[in-house]
Design brief:
The protein has helices spanning about 15-30, 90-100, 120-130, 175-184; strands at about 5-10, 35-40, 50, 55-60, 60-65, 80, 105-110, 130-135, 150-155, 170. The chain is of the alpha/beta class. The strands form three sheets. The chain has a six-stranded parallel β-sheet, with helices on both faces. Strands 3-4 form a two-stranded antiparallel ribbon. The chain is elongated, with a radius of gyration of 16 Å. The structure holds adenosine-5'-diphosphate, thymidine-5'-phosphate, magnesium ion and zinc ion (ZN).
Length: about 180
Amino acid sequence: MVGKITVITGPMYSGKTTELLSFVEIYNIGRKKTIVFKPSIDNRYGEDIVSTHTGFKVSAIRISKSREILDYIRDSIDAVFVDEIQFFDLELVDVVKELVFKGIDVYCAGLDISYLENPFETTAKLLAMADEVIKKKAVCEKCGEHRATYSYKIIPNGGEIDVGGKEKYIALCRKCLSEIKKQE
Ligand code: ADP
Ligand code: TMP
Ligand code: MG
Ligand code: ZN
């Protein structure tokens, strides 16, 4: 059997990791074998865990290159979960294909666009080939509506890849982002 590809995307704080971990739980309750990966660059909440902004955690394997995922795959694995896919190299696309052809379901979560509004290429390619796409929204931190699709960098320094949380980024809807940009 061929596995399925699910991609969960949206801005920061939209619940991507929460949703990813809820799928891990669903497989675990069904006594399925799961394995969770995250990029080494993401050191926000501890080294070997994936954590939501609310502090819910599961253990994860940290890898720096997408290909390393294949080193951990055994015949018994039913589903593979990858968080922060925007930080992975483009080879993740081929790795995901290999996994599904082994009969493994693959769940990926990550940002669709950077604070500069550039699409993250690895996420874009995985979205294009997914069987299922879950697009999440956050609460806009200016108007309070559950309509935020952008991650806004409060102090726009550092690169386009810059790990962090509320000290650096907030979620905004399109209207509030355009208003803030007019004032910049
Ligand atoms: P993501 O991985 O998409 O950044 P998480 O799943 O880690 O999101 O965290 C989602 C949680 O973040 C929410 O359940 C909520 O408690 C918290 N949160 C903080 N700021 C916001 C916001 N602006 N909109 C929605 N949730 C927020
Ligand atoms: P999150 O989606 O789970 O909140 O995590 C997003 C991570 O990506 C967080 O460490 C901040 C980082 N990030 C960037 O590196 N560049 C960006 O443009 C944005 C918006 C976030
Ligand atoms: Mg997350
Ligand atoms: Zn708004």
